[in-house]
Model the fold of this input.
Amino acid sequence: MKARTKMWVVGSAFLILLIGISWPTPETMNAVQQRSIVLLMMSILLWSTEALPIGISSLLIVGLQLALGLAESFPQSVEGFLSSAIYFIIVVTMLNQAMIRVGLDRIIARYLMSLAKGSIQRTAIVVTLAVMILPILMPSAVSRLKMFIPLIEQINARYGLAKGSNLVRFCLWSFGGLNQVTTLVVLTGGGFAILASQYFANLGEPISWSRWFLLMAPPVYVCVILTSIVMWFYWKIGRLKPQPATGDTPGRANEKADGQPDGNRSNLLVTSIVMLGVLAAWILGSQWGIPSIVPPIIALAVLALPPLRIVSDEDLRHQDWDSFLFIGSAISLSTTLERNGTVDWVSAHVLAPVSASLPWWVGLLLFVVYVLLFRMAFVSPSSAMTVVLPLALSYATAIGLPQLDALMTAILFIGGSVILPIHSPTMFIAYQTGYFTMKDQWVIGSALLVNLFIASFLASWLIW
Done:
């Protein structure tokens, strides 16, 4: 976005603010709710366009909550920064960086790809399985994608296929689009899942790692398998055959240099043991009442011990603090909107009347449509969730949908919608490689959306 365009967007945001707070208050709401809706509109515009740096706009939203009288005190305006979720994201990200530093990610990737045993079709199946399994071991979807891109290119070259072959397209869309969905299967699968889990606490149902997995994994895996089948036939994977390699194929020149992980074996061993311990603590910790954030914090402390120094203060300094400010301020704004009744007002007067007299299944369909419409306004799933989920839950209550069904359905669609590449960081990176077209994106993205609906309907009927 050009500087002049950004100035117009920022000017429009403040114009919305000025008009909104000076407009006569409707009889159905109070002045605080009116100002809350105006601030919500302003925040959506600034966060979705990033006309201001995301960290600066986040601090601005915190300040405006005070200036507009939406928060009674500064501690109330920064309530979201007390959430363990935003600290969990930083800790898990640092653990993921430690795995990459010692080369554990490459060992896992090469082992998985060795299972293909020279078959193109088996390679596609292994990639699908890797997309489904790896979130349990590696929290970052972006790291998983970047880890596999060079490996996919090397394997494609060994089969003697063209650089942009259908195998490459299948694999990269798997790690770009499906990878975004499978991140949801674990509570520790990145910022989105961690933030989403906070809403269980708001419903009075704090959720454990194992319960989250049991609720989310079945629909996610059904959706991934169905979409993989569509991709298999769309890119005609069954017809691909290895071709004679000619000369020095791409990726082979670097194979020797890239074949061994960085770091020494002791660091690799310690990191592997520590990560297995963290995973075990997440699975079993709920039975002993251990908060999910405790095991990774202890793991970081172990990896930072003087003899190891696998993580350091330097890693902490290079964390994404803009996202930290954004998530904290977004949760704060969301809490404010719920506390002063704005969320319930929007649901009761804008959303619910449309479907109040319709059958339940039509209400469910409209619920999904509302979620998707709000989702399309945001580039980031995490930013969409902080605004969409409170509205979605209030709307579900108004039309009589069970809260758990509504929450899980909204999470699936917010986290799994990748109709456009910009709606997912991993999808955008994969699309930027140039291996598939916008037509591919629309076809597979639409198939994924349909499969999300099928999976969520089955889960609502059989599991949730």
